[in-house]
Amino acid sequence: MSNGKKIKNDQDMTDEMQRGKVKFEVYGEEMVEKAVKLSGNSGRVYLPPDWVGCRVKIIRID
Predict the structure, then answer these.
(1) How far does CA 47 lie from the centroid of its chain?
(2) Cα(20)–Cα(22) distance, rounded to whole angstroms?
(3) Using CA atoms, how far apart are residues 35 and 44, in angstroms rounded to an integer?
C-alpha cells in the first residue's frame, strides 16, 4: 500500500453499514476537524476567517 490508505475488508464494511454509516468521497482544498460547541439551542463550529464566503460541506463522523 504505497499511498498509505487502509483498505477495509468485507466484514468491516458490513459492520459500518449495520450501524448506519455511509462512505463519502469529497474533493476539496482544505480540511479541519473540530468538535461542535453548544451555542444556545444549536451547535457551532468556528472556521478560519479566510473561509468566509466559501462553500463548505460538513460531515458528522460520530
Answers:
(1) 14
(2) 7
(3) 9
CA distances to 20, 32, 34, 37, 44 from 41, rounded to whole Å, are 26, 24, 19, 11, 10
Q: Is 58 in contact with 45 (CB distance < 8 Å)? A: yes
> Which pLDDT belongs to residue 13?
64
Where in the chain are the domains? 10-51
Beta bridge partners of 42: 39
d(CA 13, CA 21): 9
pTM score over 0.70? no
16 band by pLDDT with thresholds 50, 70 and 90 = low
Instruction: Report whether 51 contacts 57 (CB < 8 A).
Output: no
